[in-house]
TrEMBL record:
Residues 32-97 form the Bifunctional inhibitor/plant lipid transfer protein/seed storage helical domain. GO terms for molecular function: lipid binding. InterPro entries: Bifun_inhib/LTP/seed_sf, Bifunc_inhib/LTP/seed_store, nsLTP2. It comes from the Eukaryota. Keywords: Lipid-binding, Signal, Transport. SMART domains: AAI. Coiled coil: none annotated. Pfam families: Tryp_alpha_amyl (PF00234). Residues 1-29 form the signal peptide. GO terms for biological process: lipid transport. This is Bifunctional inhibitor/plant lipid transfer protein/seed storage helical domain-containing protein.
Length: 97
């Protein structure tokens, strides 16, 4: 029952993120869209280790991380302890925003 609830919560969070976030272009040619981090969702929301595709996307989206941190809808997810563990595992330094 608890596992089903977590899956439901994760699905809801993913759906909310898809609906509430706009794509924001940055100077480096990266299109900032939090949906690009979907391979990291399980790692962000649990103690699962990040996949190689998660790390690749996290590195790709690094120029966007400050924007995600400033967004009140996303801040709690991208600054969570699990998100920090994912960044460390992927060797992606947290930006100074």
């Amino acid at each position: 029952m608890v596992k089903v609830m977590w899956v439901s919560v994760l699905a809801l969070v993913a759906a909310l993120l898809l609906v509430t976030v706009e794509k924001i272009p940055v100077a480096e040619g990266v299109t900032c869209s939090v949906t690009e981090l979907s391979p990291c969702l399980a790692a962000f929301m649990s103690s699962s280790p990040p996949s190689a595709s998660c790390c690749a996307k996290l590195r790709e989206q690094k120029p966007c991380l400050c924007g995600y941190m400033r967004n009140p809808s996303l801040r709690q997810y991208v600054t969570s302890p699990n998100a920090k563990k994912v960044s460390n595992s992927c060797k992606v330094a947290s930006p100074n925003c």
